[in-house]
């Protein structure tokens, strides 16, 4: 038996706090009865409705995908473009991407039906690091790298300090390879930070998420996370 708000959060209905608000406002029914008490516990055979819509409890599943470029980081796309979920085979559960990668960005993307873990992984409070490698135009100066490490404000959006490293530079092609490690996941963050210091991104890839890497995967391939990998993610976000 689990507390009702924990079950709602786990199944991706809402965050734990938002699920509590749903319960207290009388929008949740268990076995046909409106439940407003936060201490209520439910089991796998209980029927839960939120605003009249059934909540389906599924076995948790955790998938790592090497997202290729030109793929949308959503479960569905109204324009009919290929999505990351289209690349996942033999997974009967409904899974959703944790955060997103831009259409033209490749790299490591997590997908799960564990709503509570997904909410925590995308919250900057838990500071789960994401490692990006970018090819940029030009060669970033020491001053530019220092600005990235100090954090910045771009178009009114505040970005926390990044860890940076210049991996290589090719003067003939007027481009460089730069590594950025951030713990936020704001829209186009890496691109905006690098462009703000004068070095626009030509190509971008996310190589690590926490301790997870793309080792053993080719673009478009996916695998289930190992139990110890799931444990590490939960420990990093305070769930264990």
Automatic annotation (TrEMBL):
Keyword Cytoplasm found: no
Keywords of the record: Isomerase, RNA-binding
Top-rank taxon, per record: Bacteria
Record-linked InterPro entries: PsdUridine_s_RsuA/RluB/E/F_cat, PsdUridine_synth_cat_dom_sf, PsdUridine_synth_RsuA/RluA, PsdUridine_synth_RsuA/RluB/E/F, PsdUridine_synth_RsuA/RluB_CS, RsuA_PseudoU_synthase, S4_RNA-bd, S4_RNA-bd_sf
SMART domains: S4
EC number: 5.4.99.-
One Gene Ontology MF term: isomerase activity
Chain ranges of the RNA-binding S4 domain: 2-61
One matching Pfam family: PseudoU_synth_2
Main enzyme class: isomerase
Annotated family: Belongs to the pseudouridine synthase RsuA family.
UniProt protein name: Pseudouridine synthase
């Amino acid at each position: 038996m689990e507390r009702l708000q924990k079950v709602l959060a786990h199944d991706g209905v809402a965050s734990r706090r938002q699920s509590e608000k749903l319960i207290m406002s009388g929008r949740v029914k268990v076995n046909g009865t409106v439940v407003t008490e936060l201490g209520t516990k439910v089991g796998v055979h209980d029927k839960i409705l939120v605003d009249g819509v059934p909540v389906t409890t599924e076995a948790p599943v955790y998938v790592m995908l090497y997202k290729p470029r030109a793929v949308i980081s959503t479960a569905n796309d109204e324009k009919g473009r290929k999505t990351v979920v289209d690349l996942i085979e033999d997974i009967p559960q409904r899974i959703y991407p944790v955060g997103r990668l831009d259409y033209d960005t490749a790299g490591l993307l997590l997908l799960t039906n564990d709503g509570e873990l997904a909410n925590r992984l995308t919250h900057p409070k838990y500071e789960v690091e994401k490692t990006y490698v970018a090819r940029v135009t030009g060669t970033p100066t020491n001053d530019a790298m220092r600005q990235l490490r100090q954090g910045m404000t771009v178009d009114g959006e505040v970005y926390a300090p990044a860890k940076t490293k210049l991996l290589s530079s090719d003067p003939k092609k007027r481009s460089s390879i730069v590594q950025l490690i951030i713990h936020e996941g704001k829209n186009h963050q890496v691109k905006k930070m690098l462009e703000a210091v004068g070095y626009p991104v030509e190509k971008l890839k996310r190589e690590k998420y926490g301790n997870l890497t793309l080792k053993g995967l080719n673009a478009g391939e996916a695998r289930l996370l190992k139990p110890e990998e799931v444990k590490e993610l939960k420990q990093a976000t305070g769930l264990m």
